[in-house]
């Protein structure tokens, strides 16, 4: 049967993304491909995405190198496939000689195969041979590949750059997945000079999530006039209530945290201060006040800062909100969050207290009017009923876009949040 060469171009990844960085190839020239087999991974401004092949055939050529930024629609690889047509090549199809007859529009990264899920090599490595849907026994080379350590795409790229064998690196995460920081630590240990008094510099390429985060915060800092207000308050009742509610059946499987209660307080305050949930549309010269709250959860991950989104957060009860926040953060940390789940927030919240930090001045997520930061909760002396007592105290900070929110509005909003955290029961009973 005659063969033709098909060209696979970087698909439209959605969410307005125009480019992606190629993290790694999962295939080599000459490899046989199954339909929907993952051929590689790209990293966008929001997440790492696996690329399933729309063709079954043989890899003929790899057209991009790991670390290269590729625009949507640019060719990634060519695949030799069986020619099942009897007519000459039509518009947009390569000729038998492998030359494209005409340009084809970019494909959209959804549903390549007829109801078949992409075949992820990472997932296949975790499925024992012989189990249902598991990989079939292979030759020695394939078996060795199946035993390679599980690692984030950025970690594999870093290991290749540093010339490190992943099998020799000890992971720091409890799930055993290697990260770029693991590779860097291993490299530092191997290159430490004999004379420890002489320090050596380490250069790390600015790429991936770190690059996108830098671009976003720089754009935010220089386009939105930031201001921040602070409030230190007694949250003893909130801490006591959390301890009680964790034993309640409604919170089974939903770990209740101070962040969830602070988020609930923020959502309640937005009802009286709707400008907190707005954005500045420079192009249209309009202020957009959003009627539903898409709450961004600033999350530290092995790949850098990500902001997964809890949609319609204002419609959720406290148990539902606690579960949604935990699920969103977990998806971001594990790399399972899609670009759609990491975009579109209208206001954000961050918990710097988990690092033992009292407070901070968070930078706005681009396009948002405000971000609330929750500091560390600790025992401090506090005046209660004209007497000194030891109470649970926290410092809150609210950064805001001064084009959208005045200082008076920000001060009232933060004071309202503080009042709710001082005595959360009335708000929670009211269901707001």
UniProtKB/TrEMBL annotation:
It is an enzyme of class 2 (transferase). PROSITE patterns: BIOTINYL_LIPOYL (PS50968), LIPOYL (PS00189), PSBD (PS51826). Residues 145-163, 180-192 have a biased composition (Basic and acidic residues). Its EC number is 2.3.1.-. Residues 83-203 are annotated as: Disordered. Its cofactor is (R)-lipoate. Residues 5-80 form the Lipoyl-binding domain. It comes from the Bacteria. The keyword Acyltransferase applies. Keywords: Acyltransferase, Lipoyl, Transferase. It holds the Pfam family 2-oxoacid_dh. InterPro entries: 2-oxoA_DH_lipoyl-BS, 2-oxoacid_DH_actylTfrase, 2-oxoacid_DH_E2_comp, Biotin_lipoyl, CAT-like_dom_sf, E3-bd_dom_sf, PSBD, Single_hybrid_motif. Residues 150-187 form the Peripheral subunit-binding (PSBD) domain. One of its GO terms (molecular function) is acyltransferase activity. Belongs to the 2-oxoacid dehydrogenase family. This is Dihydrolipoamide acetyltransferase component of pyruvate dehydrogenase complex.
């Amino acid at each position: 049967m005659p063969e033709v060469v098909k060209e696979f171009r970087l698909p439209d990844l959605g969410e307005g993304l125009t480019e992606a960085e190629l993290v790694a190839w999962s295939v080599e020239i000459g490899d046989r491909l199954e339909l929907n087999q993952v051929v590689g991974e790209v990293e966008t401004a929001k997440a790492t995405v696996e690329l399933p092949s729309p063709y079954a055939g043989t890899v003929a050529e790899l057209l991009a190198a790991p670390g290269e930024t590729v625009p949507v629609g640019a060719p990634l690889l060519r695949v030799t496939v069986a020619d099942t047509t009897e007519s000459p090549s039509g518009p947009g199809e390569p000729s038998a000689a492998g030359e494209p007859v005409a340009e084809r529009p970019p494909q959209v990264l959804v549903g390549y195969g007829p109801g078949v899920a992409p075949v992820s090599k990472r997932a296949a490595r975790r499925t024992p041979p012989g189990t249902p849907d598991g990989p079939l026994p292979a030759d020695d080379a394939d078996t060795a590949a199946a035993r390679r350590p599980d690692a984030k795409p950025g970690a594999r790229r870093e290991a290749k750059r540093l010339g490190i064998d992943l099998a020799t690196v000890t992971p720091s995460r409890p799930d055993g997945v290697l990260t770029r920081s693991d590779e860097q630590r291993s490299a530092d240990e191997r290159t430490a000079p004999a004379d420890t008094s002489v320090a050596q510099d380490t250069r790390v390429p600015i790429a991936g999530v770190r690059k996108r985060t830098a671009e976003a915060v720089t754009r935010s800092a220089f386009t939105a006039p930031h201001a921040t207000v602070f409030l230190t308050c007694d949250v003893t009742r909130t801490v006591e209530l959390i301890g009680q509610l964790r034993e309640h059946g409604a919170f089974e499987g939903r770990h209740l945290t101070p962040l969830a209660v602070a988020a609930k307080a923020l959502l309640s305050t937005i009802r009286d201060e709707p400008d907190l949930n707005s954005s500045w549309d420079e192009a249209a010269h309009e202020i957009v006040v959003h009627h539903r709250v898409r709450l961004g959860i600033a999350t530290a991950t092995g790949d850098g800062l990500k902001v997964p989104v809890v949609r319609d957060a204002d419609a959720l009860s406290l148990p539902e909100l606690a579960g949604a926040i935990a699920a969103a953060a977990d998806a971001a940390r594990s790399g399972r969050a899609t670009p759609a789940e990491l975009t579109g927030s209208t206001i954000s919240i961050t918990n710097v207290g988990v690092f033992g930090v009292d407070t901070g001045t968070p930078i706005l997520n681009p396009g948002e009017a405000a971000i609330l930061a929750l500091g560390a909760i600790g025992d401090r002396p506090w005046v209660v009923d004209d007497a000194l007592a030891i109470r649970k105290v926290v410092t809150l900070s609210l950064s805001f876009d001064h084009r959208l929110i005045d200082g008076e509005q920000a001060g009232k909003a933060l004071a309202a949040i503080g009042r709710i955290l001082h005595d959360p029961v009335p708000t929670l009973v009211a269901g707001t």
